[in-house]
Amino acid sequence: MTWLAALRPGPRVTGGLLCAAGFALLAWDGLLAAALGAELLATAFWWWARASDDPARHLPRWEWLRRPAAALWLALAVAAVAPAGAPGPWRALEAGAVVWAGLELLAALPLARPFSDLPGPLLALGPWLPAVLPAAGFVVLWRLQEHWLGVARVRDAAAALLLVTAALAALRAFALRRWTAALRWLAVGDGALAALLVAVRAVPPAASLLLWLSASGAHAFLLGAELSGAVPRRGPVLSAIWRTTTWAASAALAWPMLLAMGARFGARGPLWSLAAALPVALIAWVNVARMVEAPERRAVRRPGTGITLSRVAPLFALAGVPVALAIASWSGPPVGWAAALLALAPAAAGGLGGLLTYRGVAPGALAAPADEPPRTDRLAVRGRAVRQSARRVFRFVTAFERTLAGWALWLLRLPAAPLRDLHSGDAQEYLLLLVGVALLAVVLPLLR
């Protein structure tokens, strides 16, 4: 049996295979494939949590991943029961279930909002694993957009929640000191802005996918690189390349969305554009100012050809940006220079503010954390106060949301209280209750 034990994959490989299969099914067309993909994704996190160093802590932390899968099964059931020309309530229920699944994975709902603050269950890849979930949320909303974009109320509510999520993600990334945690929230912001791009129908689906891959892929690569020595932040040239790459990818993702806001929401368009400009500018600031050069750990550099993955990856991250913008410009209406520059202004202002506050590695920074600039001048003290204010705003909003969600759940459970009082909660009594209800369902038709 030793050879069987040798062939048996470990929890890391098994969870990785389940996660890869889940993403493949999410990218497939259809509600059935999406529901199965969400189930496999939840199973992967359950597998990792079960094999972690503290299963009692990790299993309850990630059990909420069953809710997106349940929402997609509900959408599949509604689509199977309701005919093609079903009235509005059936379509709204199906669209709401799809949006519920995507928004929950994107940390856009109160019950799943803080998951990016916590590392994943697997010890080796824990800080990187939560970035998988906003990617899955965007794929759900992007792949199943024909199921929810046609219902105006659901689409507008999803756009409002995505806008709030982008703002909260930007505030959280701005407030956090740890660069890995900030990158996880930047991934949430990328997914929210990309899903908002889909909601306002700013660009064709292929262009929105390319823009999201560029922005989210750059942040995912940086997050993975932080776990292997923070190579992209070693040296002024490489850190400047990645600073430019992340800023350009995020600006390209937000630019067509800001352009389409005015046309999509009519008279309320300027208000929506102004609300969206804040997270765009703040994400641009974080991309530029927080990408601090890490001190070199070696006295003598290792000889090599100079062509490394960290130097080639920015080219792949930005490869889809011109293609996506070309597709958007060819398929959409012509855009004037004034509107284009105005839509680019938030990202440009955020990047300029990041350059003005960026200081790199100072002589006293070797004793400070590598992801935080030294706090020796008056500007650093003011920046720390601003970050604390952003942290308070995030905690206030999330606490308020969770309070509202708690009251809503209490109101939903209130009508079911008499049913819970029919038995004491014992498993055998619950089975007897089900048998009694089944017998009643059989006898009542006979008594008519």
Can you describe what's shown?
By secondary structure, the chain is mainly α. It has helices at residues 2-7, 11-26, 31-50, 55-61, 66-81, 88-105, 132-143, 152-175, 179-199, 205-226, 236-265, 269-289, 309-331, 337-357, 378-413, 417-420, 427-446. Helix 6 runs antiparallel to helix 7, helix 10 packs antiparallel against helix 13 and helix 11 packs antiparallel against helix 14. The model is unreliable at 361-376 (pLDDT under 50).
SS elements, strand count:
0
| Number of helices, counting only DSSP H or I runs of 4 residues or more | 17
Largest sheet: none
Content-based structural category = mainly alpha
Which percent range describes the beta-strand content?
Answer: under 5%
Instruction: Report the mean per-residue pLDDT as an integer.
Output: 81
Summarize the helix and strand pattern as letters.
Answer: HHHHHHHHHHHHHHHHH
Helix content, binned percent: over 70%
Q: Terminal Cα separation, in Å?
A: 64 Å
Low-pLDDT runs = 361-376
Gyration radius (Cα, Å) is 24 Å
- Can you tell me the overall shape? globular
Sum this structure up briefly.
This protein has 448 residues and is an all-alpha fold. Helix content is 71%, strand content 0%. Helix 8 packs parallel to helix 12 (269-289), helix 8 runs antiparallel to helix 15 and helix 11 (236-265) runs antiparallel to helix 14 (337-357).
Q: Which features does this protein show?
A:
17 helices; single chain; mainly alpha; 448 residues
Chain-wise SSE layout:
Blueprint: H1 2-7, H2 11-26, H3 31-50, H4 55-61, H5 66-81, H6 88-105, H7 132-143, H8 152-175, H9 179-199, H10 205-226, H11 236-265, H12 269-289, H13 309-331, H14 337-357, H15 378-413, H16 417-420, H17 427-446
Helix pairs in contact: 2-3, 3-5, 5-6, 6-7, 6-8, 7-9, 8-9, 8-12, 8-15, 9-10, 9-11, 10-11, 10-13, 11-12, 11-13, 11-14, 12-14
